[in-house]
């Protein structure tokens, strides 16, 4: 079968996806523990296999027999990763078709920094293809982060479609929440303009952040928590709670940020 997709830049760094991994382990841990086949896919892991190695370690804290398969479209990257393969960790060549031995269906597909170079109009078909590969109760996590993982935004999708959008950051490096706009995933990044829901959300977040500035003396974490509480009070459908907010995260229902009618996403 021909690999579906194009070769990415391949940029990767150790611990780059730590925020996404921790969120997955915390919020998808129940499904992972219940899964008959606790298999996860690191799609488009890049020029080095660090993110796949780290994903396995983090998932095994939740499910000791979890497995990870790194999938890369570039055969040279697969060859370079093979020396790192071990029990529970493998690497194969492939793309959005997610070729797995024996027709296995993963309980998790993580696709980080993969769709940045694609057109916005390509996103729905890619999402649909990946969601179709999930096992029952499975999760697709697709998003973008900076080079060292300080700022990250991702969409979580089940077999039925998009569920939530999560914004995660190192709070000590943040001037205002809208700084995360440059890391919006492809489905949203071109929609950060007046009249679009994601722009309205980030504008409201900046406003709440400014209003919480007196709490800066107590630290950026307390200011972030107060700003998220204000967003929820305004009616934004925040789906998580203070335990995640303290990590510099906030998760919002997809429907509240869904692009306007002009988008095919």
TrEMBL record:
InterPro entries: SAM-dependent_MTases_sf (IPR029063). Keywords: Methyltransferase, Transferase. One of its GO terms (biological process) is methylation. One of its GO terms (molecular function) is methyltransferase activity. This is Class I SAM-dependent methyltransferase. It comes from Actinacidiphila epipremni.
């Amino acid at each position: 079968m021909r690999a579906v997709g194009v070769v990415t830049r391949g940029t990767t760094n150790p611990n780059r996806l730590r925020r996404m991994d921790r969120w997955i382990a915390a919020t998808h841990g129940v499904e992972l523990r219940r899964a008959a086949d606790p298999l996860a896919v690191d799609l488009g892991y890049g020029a080095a296999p660090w993110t796949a190695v780290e994903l396995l370690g983090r998932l095994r804290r939740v499910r000791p027999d979890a497995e990870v398969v790194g999938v890369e479209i570039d055969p040279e990257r697969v060859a370079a990763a093979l020396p790192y393969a071990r029990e529970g960790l493998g690497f194969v060549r492939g793309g959005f078709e997610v070729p797995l031995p024996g027709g296995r269906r993963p309980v998790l597909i993580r696709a980080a920094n993969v769709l940045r170079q694609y057109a916005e109009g390509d996103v729905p078909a890619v999402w649909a293809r990946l969601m179709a590969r999930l096992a029952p109760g499975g999760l697709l996590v697709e998003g973008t982060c900076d080079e060292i993982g300080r700022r990250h935004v991702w969409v979580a999708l089940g077999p039925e479609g998009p569920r939530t959008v999560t914004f995660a950051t190192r709070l000590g490096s943040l001037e205002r929440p809208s700084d995360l706009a440059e890391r919006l995933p492809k489905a949203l990044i071109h929609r950060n303009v007046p009249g679009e829901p994601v722009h309205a959300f980030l504008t409201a977040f900046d406003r709440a952040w400014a209003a919480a500035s007196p709490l800066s003396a107590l630290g950026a974490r307390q200011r972030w928590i107060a700003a998220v509480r204000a967003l929820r009070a305004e009616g934004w459908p925040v789906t998580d709670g203070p335990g995640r907010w303290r990590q510099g995260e906030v998760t919002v229902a997809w429907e509240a940020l869904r692009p306007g009618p002009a988008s095919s996403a």
